[in-house]
User: Fold these one by one.
Assistant:
Number 1:
Amino acid sequence: MSQYFPGSSNFTIEGGTFNTMTYSYRNAKGSTTGGFERLQEYVAHGAFHDSGERFDPPKCHDNTRVAIIKKIMDWISGLDEDTREALIMWLYGAAGAGKSAIAQTIAEILDGQHFFLASFFFGRNDPQRGTAKLLVTTLAYQLAVKLPPMFRERLGLAFEKDPLINTRSLEAQFKALIREPLLELLQFFSSTKKHIVVIIDGLDECEDTKVQARIIDLSFNLLRGRDIPLKILIVSRPEMDISASFDTKPFYTLARIALDDDYQSEEDIRHFLEDKLNEINTQHRLRSYIPIGWPADDSLDTLVQKSSGQFIYASTVVKYVASPRHRPMHRLDVVLGIQLPKAGDSPFAELDALYRQILMGVEDVDLVLQIIGFVVLHPPNFFNSVAFIEAFFSLAPGDVQLLMQDLSSLISVENHPCYSDGSMSTVRLLHAFLKDYLLDQSRSKDFFLDRVKMHTQYAELCLAHMTELPALQSNSPRHPLTGMLPYVFIRLNFYILIA
């Protein structure tokens, strides 16, 4: 049992005394240790939203993402009836959709409004932010410097009782360093007006996929009793293990926000590009050589279209065009394909690195690239149903979904209403500019899709299927290719003409 005496600098707890001025613990034998100082040794400083190591982090451009930011803030404040009961929110979207920028903006808003905030921004391949080893201690430290001193004192005691608490399981750390200190704090400060908010960004960048799912499970376990005023915002790509973990959670405890067309990302991207290109017009050192009316409206339309709702394309373009060592007009022409880049110039280096990193994680990449090529190189106005693709490549039903699960941040397998059988699944590229990457050998290297080679392969498959179809029609009348002879014939003619 703990006792706190107002006006005193000492806090008596479990056979010892904490001094609230020095935050040191004196045990029954009289020795003094600094448990909180020990905690600081296990903090990932670069994971804070305001860390100096993350100088100038991506955040939402002014007057963009207004609706989604309001949705999240209303959830935190309990003003949204649809999400009021949820204690955890999952914000997810394709690679480069601007998720981290939204998380950063929310963190800055909460910080400015003096919420009790702790954040952890994962970073792939970062020794401190690439794993979850320092997740709990980092969150606990941030809460300790913002909550009343009793929380910090309780953390010091946890390290005094178990100097190796930071090596324990994530479950044990969550319990000892967050849940129990918060419960004890609430015994004295039960009327907390504002929720404590934890932001975990880039969960998919944690190197162990099993740990990713475990963090989600632990977050729900932490809040299961609804006895601590804590809300958790988790931001990630919709990767397989993460999605599967969220899918098992009770719907009333979880709010989901998908970064899709519902939040008008195209309008936001247009606004972002207009503002940034106008800055180049007025601030670039060669601004006097920029013609009036640059860039043309059709150029802006092309950039918005190529962005496919993903901010990473727009921000990459702006960084490239804004280079003070080059002419903005020339660089924009390179982006638009009007001029060729100079030797060694790589306008989409950031995007190329992202695509390579994602494709490197695909299990059967050769087969996946064949399917992507089938989608990318299809004849005009031809649908790419999953059933047709699986039949065309002699795959079992469901194989396309399994093969594409490692590419969920770039490619979507979607269901659409269909008059004939109720629904139809199709494959859609979430990044329209992924096609440009795959068809440019200088960019995609070993992931290159050779048009002539692939058209030839597809033509050979068409011929093979055309010879098999009569037997299929008599033996397997329900086979997906049965009745699709005209479509196979159209594709064959297309591939022969192209090849």
Number 2:
Amino acid sequence: MNSVGSNCNELKQEYDACFNVWFGTQFLKGNNNESMCAPILKLYTDCVKEAIKELKIDLKEIERNVLNTEEEKKKPGEG
């Protein structure tokens, strides 16, 4: 899966690879210290935050709960 910002895809792939190594070699052996991937996660997180701003994505709108409400029945654009 690609990142929200196409310019963040490479950082996402690097973080995913680091996470997979950490999970298999550290976490599953009882070590939950996440510092191994922290630097790349910080870069990726910053990139995603910038992409969200550039794309003008309203995070409040994403988190809005509409399931089992009248809002759920509306078609996109109604309202």
